[in-house]
């Protein structure tokens, strides 16, 4: 029986290198032609192609690798959302589809969104979107050349001799290869604070993911002449705010489980325990963890990321990756894999590591039903940052902080300004990490259309929704998968508009573009967010005492709910703090799962501009729905909150999610 297009796309997502030709795409032996050519099968690229097909154009997506869906399907299942009210359009549809996939229900415009998920579920959702839109996907196509006529791309070719011709192009790769070969201005590394009048760009020696105990970095302790331990740079620390070309660290986002069928940690080929000598000293100094985090995404699985001074981030190993050849990149990826697999093996097996750490690490292992095509290891390295475009508008810290606004918004971002460490070096005789920045933003902010298109003289038919024009620290906030999907969809709408009006993409009518985006439920106005939902594991949650996750009672929001274990009454508290996009009246709602063992007298404090209003809720009833607590006035930002208390409660207290709806 011949394969359907849906089957072929799913096969491609699993790494078979399938080629799927969608409606209207023309192909000969060596030429594929489409209205839109997208380079990069990332979420941003897929959103661009799906939107362009929905608008009636033809589109082809090509990617140098063998994986569809970028990091969203490669282990980053605990989505970095920021304020969920900022996520609109096709991006929000994707997360509603994730919820519907788990619930086994049709997706609707009012379906809940789920932002934590297993990798194979995300892959299935993308497969549905691609199949329904009839999008062409071609894998294993490594970019070789770009041909231009004046300031327009006319075709690109890949190393296997395939030629792609389009009227419009989107570079949705994490590396920015297409824009670079097209002659578009790019930058690498960190600007100094002086470049754009910022405060947290450039070199930053700070306290996050930092050594909390002094560790000697020399081969022979106390003897600089003996050389440095592996992973420690010989460079001198520059003053904070100094520009340099260093790139923040990469890693693999592991999907782990504690289930009995978990896979054991494998000792990788090329394993060298000496790479972890500094970590061993850190442990000997008294550090007991964590060495990686375990954020639950459902199905008893995790999205496990870097956590701490010496963890899964391969600090200093990413610097040459952005501009390297494909062969050198492959070697860098392989080195990251050996480093991270070796780290896990070391923690679980090296007899010098305390037994408590070894047993705690061995209690986790790769999930046996994820990433089977790549040896149960994530199929893609997390390239957090590579090239960045330099266009007529550069997004900066001022945008993130709300101090600068733009008239040509095509999407919102809202995540913390987040950079991972860039180097490990010696400071005052001990090892220090440098580069980690985690500074929150006051609320959603607008992303300029000019930041996703090059200067017109450089290229008039290219859009760049992933490696967009932003300073290093602003990119650290924008570079989240939901935002890439937002900007990918907006790029496709702009490309279609440019074609239908016959103008360079830089000259599309912004008012028309924004009207089209609003019709697609894209959120481009800071005041447009009409709903803010905070899951118990989301941004804006703080806890006191001990709260335990559970999925025992169905009907919860997100991947699970939390409870106080019916103990430590008065000690256990959990607060939901939203980042509201605007001041005004907001209706506050709370969600829990009901059961006879729940407390019927749970005190809940709503903190608003008028003070604190306390409600008592009965969690034995009204479960699995949004229960209104009232409508209150709030200022914009994070001054308001909802606090769940446990004093004198007569059963289990549940914390699932809070919702703020614009009144």
Any overview of this molecule?
Helix content is 21%, strand content 23%. Strands 1, 2, 3, 4, 5, 6, 7, 8 and 23 form a nine-stranded mixed sheet that branches. α2 (43-54) runs parallel beside α12 (481-501) and α3 crosses α4 (119-133). The chain is an alpha+beta fold. Residues 1-21 have low confidence and may be disordered. It has a domain at 531-662: Galactose-binding domain-like (Jelly Rolls, Sandwich). The chain is built from 13 helices and 35 strands. Keywords: 4Fe-4S, Iron, Iron-sulfur, Metal-binding, Oxidoreductase. InterPro entries: CBD-like_Golvesin-Xly, FAD/NAD-bd_sf, HdrA-like, TAT_signal. This is FAD-dependent oxidoreductase.
Secondary structure tally, helices: 13
% residues in beta strands: 15-25%
Radius of gyration: 25 Å
Low-pLDDT stretches are 1-21
Look at the structure and name the CATH superfamily of the domain at 531-662: Galactose-binding domain-like
Mean pLDDT: 93
By CATH, the architecture of the domain at 531-662 is named Sandwich
Which CATH C-level class of the domain at 531-662 is it? Answer: Mainly Beta
Overall body shape: globular
Q: Would you count the extended β strands for me?
A: 35
Biggest β-sheet strands, sense, barrel: 9 strands, mixed
CATH fold title of the domain at 531-662: Jelly Rolls
Class by SSE composition: alpha+beta
Distance between the termini: 55 Å
What is the share of helical residues? 10-25%
